[in-house]
């Protein structure tokens, strides 16, 4: 229940910001990429990388500055290292960020940074953990204008989200390489 309330608050704040500011247009689209967890224990159990997918919504604020709201999901299934029990991990980061896009024509590089709020759940035969944490993310990438209304977004994201659900500090962040197809509305 608390999870839905937090998501609603994030979306409400984003909508307020996008309607108050003098936005000329918005960018909306789907995201997919590879996620490589930073934490060594997560990499050992769940593998070094897997697919992450989600959405991005960007509101133009001023010149090349945009406010972005992104929601993603990462899910991995594995076995624990000692007892080889079945275990699964689900991460749902929500990121509110500011992006500056350098308008150069068809190929437009960008830098982005923001606040990451992550819900996580680990289900295992030896116990379940469900919690949330927050941290930061930084991005760099390239927007390629395919037409006046379609943008291809290639980017790298680094995030750090420190949590301590069982007495051991874990970083749920990591490195992502992804693509997004954004429609300008």
Describe the fold and architecture.
There is one protein chain. The chain is mostly beta strands and 185 residues long. It has a single domain, classed as Porin (Beta Barrel), CATH 2.40.160.20. It contains two helices and nine strands. An eight-stranded antiparallel β-barrel has the order 1-2-3-4-5-6-7-9. Strand 5 and strand 6 form a beta hairpin. The model has no long low-confidence stretch (mean pLDDT 86).
In short:
This protein is mostly beta strands. Helices cover 14% and strands 65% of the residues. It has one domain (2-184): Porin (Beta Barrel).
Per the principal axes of the C-alpha atoms, what is the gross shape? elongated
Report the structural category.
mainly beta
Tell me which CATH architecture applies here.
Beta Barrel
**What fraction of the residues are assigned to beta strands by DSSP?**
over 45%
* CATH topology (level 3) name: Porin
Radius of gyration: 17 Å
Number of helices: 2
Distance between the termini: 32 Å
Biggest sheet statistics: 8 strands, antiparallel, barrel
Order of helices and strands: HEHEEEEEEEE
Tell me which oligomeric state these chains represent: single chain
By CATH reckoning, the class would read Mainly Beta
Describe the secondary-structure layout.
Layout: H1 2-20, E1 26-37, H2 40-46, E2 50-62, E3 65-79, E4 86-101, E5 107-124, E6 127-145, E7 150-163, E8 170-171, E9 174-184
Antiparallel strand pairs: 1-2, 1-9, 2-3, 3-4, 4-5, 5-6, 6-7, 7-8, 7-9
Features:
8-stranded antiparallel β-barrel, Porin, 185 residues, mainly beta, 9 strands
